[in-house]
Amino acid sequence: MRIVQATLEHLDLLAPLFVRYREFYGELPYPDSSKKFLEKRLRRKESVIYLALADDDDKLLGFCQLYPSYSSLSLKRVWILNDIYVAEDARRQLVADRLLQTAKKMAKETQAVRMRVSTSSNNAVAQKVYESIGFREDTQFKNYVLPINGD
After folding, report:
1. What's the predicted TM-score (pTM) here?
2. Domain count, the chain
3. One-character DSSP codes across the chain
4. pLDDT at 3 over 70
5. Looking at residue 51, which CATH number applies to its domain?
6. Each residue of 17-63: pLDDT tens digit?
7. Mode of pairing for the β-strands spanning 48-53 and 2-5
8. What's the pLDDT at 41?
């Protein structure tokens, strides 16, 4: 397996797995909108996307997407690990571990103070993977969400 940073040339390879990721979390597929969303992120350099590719071909095993942010308290960069997904037939092959290690390396190289990640409270598998990489549950801050839906 090799990990590469996604470019626009990877868009057709990435988009179908991104759609499956969205469906995993109960969203409607919207393949055209999903592809356009990814294209904008890549074109505008608004996120960093890593791809896990099979060694013998260009089969996509998984991906993760990180967004930059900043901490006013530490005066440093923060990376938000917003998306990570491994294809069903590639699970239990340490794909997520390799993607996370690559993301962690990039965070260190960009002098980030931390990476943040959120997952479903019932996703025990993801929680174990994050903890194995060194993520810890935040006990300093309680997070809230304000939905903006145009009530």
Report:
1. 0.91
2. 1
3. -EEEE--GGGHHHHHHHHHHHHHHTT----HHHHHHHHHHHHHTT--EEEEEE-SSS--EEEEEEEEEEEETTTTEEEEEEEEEEE-GGGTTSSHHHHHHHHHHHHHHHTT-SEEEE---TT-HHHHHHHHHHT-----S--------S--
4. yes
5. 3.40.630.30
6. 999 999 998 999 999 999 999 999 999 999 999 999 998 877 999 99
7. antiparallel
8. 97
- Does the residue 149 lie in any domain? no
In a domain, 146, yes or no: no
Question: Is 60 within 8 Å of 21 (Cβ atoms)?
Answer: no
For residues 100 and 85, is the Cβ–Cβ distance under 8 A? no
**Residue 49 within any structural domain of the chain:** yes
- Residue 100: its pLDDT value, please? 95
Q: How far is it, in rounded angstroms, from Cα 53 to Cα 111?
A: 27
55 part of a folded domain: yes
Instruction: Provide the pLDDT for residue 151.
Output: 54
